[in-house]
C-alpha cells in the first residue's frame, strides 16, 4: 500500500500534463485539418503527380506511336496517284537486302512470277496501257517539273553537268531537250506538235546545249571514243534505267552490247547493266518518275522495281 500511495502524486501530474497536450493539439484532429492533410500533404501530392504524369506520358507515347505509324502508312500510300500498294525501290531496299519478285504492286501484278521474254512482253503491255504521251513542244514546259532542283525552286538540274539553272524555257539558250536515246537513232522525227517516242518524257532531260551537242548520238561507256560518251557518275544509273525503259516501251528499239550508230540500236548494254548496280535508284529519280506518271500516265518499271533488270538481262 505504501508504494501505491507514494506514486499517486506522480500519476496525477502525468495525467494532467497529457490532458494539457491533448487540449493544445485538438485543432489538428478536426475534420477540417484532416481534409487539408489529404489534399495538400507533400507525400500525397507527389504521389498523385507521379501517377498523373506517368499516365499522361503513357497516353501521349501510345498516341504518338499510333499517330506516327498511321501517318507513315498514309504518307506511303499517298506517295503516288496510282494504286497505293506499289512497292518502290526505296521500300524494297529498306525491308529486304535483296529485292525478290514477290508481292508485286497492283500496277505490275500481271507481271508477277514472269521473267525473260515473258516479262518483257508483259511490262511492254503494262507501261503502254493508258499512256498519254505529250508533244515534244509540251516538254519545254514540263521538264522544269520533272527535273526540278529540289534545293532551289524554279531551277532544273542539267543531266550531264549537274548544274542548277533557271527552269524557265528561253528557246533553248540556257538548256535544251536532250534525248538520252538519241533522237537520230529513234527512227522518228521530233517536232513540237508531235507526240511519239521522241517526245516521251522518260527519255528527255534538260541539258546544257553545248554539252548536248558534244554528246551527239554516241553510245554510253566507261571510256571516251568517237563512238562513246562518258556521263558523270551520279547519273549513270539514271541513264541506264531510262534506256532499259525505252527498250521495253518501244518494240522497235533494242539495246546492244557494242557501240553503234545504227537506227533503233543503242549501247553499250554490259556497261549500262553495271551502272545500274553502281548507281542505284535515288530520291530524285523516284520523284521524277512520279512527276512523269502525272503527265503521261506510265512509269519506268526499272525505277519502281530495279530487280526487273536481273529478270530480263
- Give the integer mean of the pLDDT values: 77
> Secondary-structure element sequence?
HHHHHHEEEEHEEHEEHHHH
How many domain regions? 1
Helical run tally: 12
What is the 3D form?
Answer: globular
Question: How would you portray this structure in words?
Answer:
- This protein has one domain (about 70-310).
- It is about 45% helix and about 5% strand.
- It contains 12 helices and 8 strands.
- The strands form 4 sheets. Strands 1-2 form a two-stranded antiparallel sheet. The protein has a two-stranded antiparallel ribbon with strand order 3-4. A two-stranded parallel ribbon has the order 5-6.
- Strand 1 (about 155) and strand 2 form a beta hairpin.
- The model is unreliable at about 1-15 and about 25-105 (pLDDT under 50).
Outline:
The protein has 313 residues and is mostly helical. The protein contains twelve helices and eight strands.
Amino acid at each position: 500500500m505504501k508504494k501505491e500511495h507514494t506514486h499517486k502524486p506522480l500519476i496525477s501530474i502525468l495525467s494532467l500534463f497529457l490532458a494539457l497536450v491533448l487540449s493544445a493539439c485538438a485543432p489538428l484532429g478536426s475534420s477540417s485539418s484532416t481534409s487539408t492533410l489529404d489534399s495538400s500533404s507533400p507525400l500525397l501530392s507527389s504521389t498523385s503527380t507521379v501517377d498523373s504524369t506517368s499516365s499522361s506520358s503513357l497516353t501521349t507515347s501510345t498516341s504518338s506511336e499510333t499517330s506516327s505509324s498511321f501517318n507513315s502508312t498514309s504518307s506511303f500510300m499517298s506517295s503516288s496517284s496510282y494504286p497505293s500498294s506499289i512497292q518502290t525501290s526505296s521500300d524494297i531496299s529498306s525491308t529486304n537486302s535483296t529485292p525478290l519478285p514477290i508481292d508485286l504492286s497492283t500496277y505490275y501484278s500481271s507481271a508477277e512470277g514472269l521473267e525473260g521474254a515473258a516479262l518483257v512482253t508483259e511490262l511492254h503491255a503494262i507501261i503502254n496501257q493508258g499512256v498519254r504521251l505529250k508533244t515534244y513542244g509540251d516538254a519545254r514546259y514540263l521538264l522544269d517539273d520533272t527535273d526540278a532542283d529540289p534545293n532551289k525552286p524554279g531551277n532544273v538540274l542539267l543531266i550531264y553537268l549537274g548544274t542548277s539553272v533557271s527552269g524557265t524555257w528561253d528557246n533553248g539558250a540556257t538548256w535544251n531537250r536532250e534525248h538520252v536515246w538519241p533522237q537520230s537513232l529513234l527512227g522518228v522525227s521530233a517536232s513540237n506538235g508531235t507526240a511519239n517516242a521522241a517526245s516521251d518524257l522518260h527519255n528527255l532531260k534538260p541539258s546544257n546545249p553545248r554539252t548536248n551537242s558534244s554528246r551527239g548520238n554516241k553510245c554510253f561507256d566507261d571510256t571516251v571514243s568517237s563512238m562513246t560518251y562518258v556521263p558523270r557518275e551520279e547519273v549513270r544509273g539514271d541513264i541506264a534505267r531510262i534506256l532499259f525503259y525505252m527498250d521495253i516501251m518501244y518494240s522497235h528499239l533494242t539495246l546492244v552490247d557494242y557501240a553503234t550508230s545504227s537506227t533503233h540500236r543503242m549501247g553499250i548494254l554490259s556497261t549500262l547493266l553495271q551502272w545500274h548496280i553502281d548507281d542505284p535508284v535515288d530520291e530524285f529519280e523516284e520523284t521524277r518518275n512520279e512527276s512523269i506518271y502525272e503527265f503521261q500516265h506510265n512509269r519506268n518499271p526499272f525505277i519502281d522495281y530495279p530487280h526487273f533488270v536481273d529478270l530480263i538481262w
